[in-house]
Amino acid sequence: MTELVRNIAEIGAQFAIDGTFVAGEEIESGHINTTYLASYEDDEGEAKRYILQRINENVFPEPLVVMKNIELVTRHINRKVYRHKHDFGGQTLNLYPGRDGKNCVICPAGGVWRCYNCIEGCRTYDVVGNSRQAYQAAKAFGAFQDLVSDLPVEKVSVTIPDFHDTPARYARLMEAIKKDTHGRVDHVQDEITFITSRQEITTVLLDHLKAGRLSERVTHNDTKLNNVMIDAQTDEAVCVIDLDTVMPGLAIYDFGDLIRGATSPVAEDEKDVSKVEMRLPMFEAIVEGYLETAKNFLSPLEIELLPFSAKVITMETGIRFLTDHLEGDQYFKIQHKGHNLDRCRTQLALVKSIEDQELKMNAFVAKWTRA
Ligand code: GN1
Ligand code: MG
Question: What is the pTM of this model?
Answer without folding.
Answer: 0.90
